[in-house]
UniProtKB/TrEMBL annotation:
Organism encoding this protein: Kribbella sandramycini
Annotated DJ-1/PfpI domain residues: 5-170
Keywords for this protein: Glutamine amidotransferase, Transferase
Protein's UniProt keywords contain Transferase: yes
Annotated InterPro entries: Class_I_gatase-like, DJ-1/PfpI
GO molecular function, one term: transferase activity
Record-given protein name: Glutamine amidotransferase
């Protein structure tokens, strides 16, 4: 029997819970992919944090305890615009160096930009100017798209949680393009006709 794969999810104060909700549900339940993943929350410490939506989350592990893993997911939060999150950037650096996918949305892309992780990779975010404000050197690799996959890096802006989920599921090979198109049809466009393609 194959062992369950693990996704580490960074959690921190003002973590933007809605940005990665679609993705985490699909990974954890496998309801449309047929593969369930283990979701593990990781914090700077194991002290509770409060999300932007007001949920109190107790990290299961601290950054220093993370080993292995099959995916790292980082959402936005105020910390990224305040220059914080260095520990999570270093974890992302470690994952990418090991060939493990890293998925970042909204403000987390600014953290990766400050850490130099977007300089040589195609990426997106809220707008190009937002990342240019970090002083990074990757402006020429910015792509104006809802979500971008470049090798093991997946990025998206804050208005694209469904496209973010779709891009990650695609990168992980968990669904074919027809099913992913149906997924976006249902959860982004509200197209009831797409549901049959999603569950079929």
């Amino acid at each position: 029997m194959l062992s369950m794969k693990t996704v580490y999810v960074g959690v921190y104060e003002t973590w933007a819970d809605w940005e990665i909700g679609h993705l985490l549900v699909e990974l954890r339940t496998g309801r449309f992919t047929g593969e369930e993943w283990r979701v593990v929350t990781v914090g700077e410490t194991v002290e509770p944090v409060v999300t932007m939506g007001g949920l109190r989350v107790v990290p299961e592990v601290a950054l220093a305890e993370v080993s292995g893993g099959d995916l790292l997911v980082l959402a936005g939060s105020a910390q990224w615009d305040e220059g914080g999150g260095d520990g999570f950037v270093e974890l992302a650096r470690r994952f990418l160096a090991a060939g493990v996918p890293v998925a970042a949305i909204c403000g987390a892309t600014a953290g990766l930009a400050r850490g130099g992780l977007l300089d040589e990779r195609k990426h997106t975010s809220a707008v190009k100017e937002y990342l240019l404000g970090t002083g990074y050197a990757g402006g020429d690799n910015y792509v104006d798209a809802r979500a971008v996959v470049d090798g093991d890096l997946i990025t998206a802006g804050p208005d694209s949680p469904v496209q973010f989920a779709r891009a990650v599921l695609s990168r992980l090979g968990l669904a074919d393009e027809a099913k992913l198109e149906a997924y976006e049809g249902v959860f982004h466009r509200g197209d009831p006709a797409a549901y049959a393609g999603l569950v079929g």
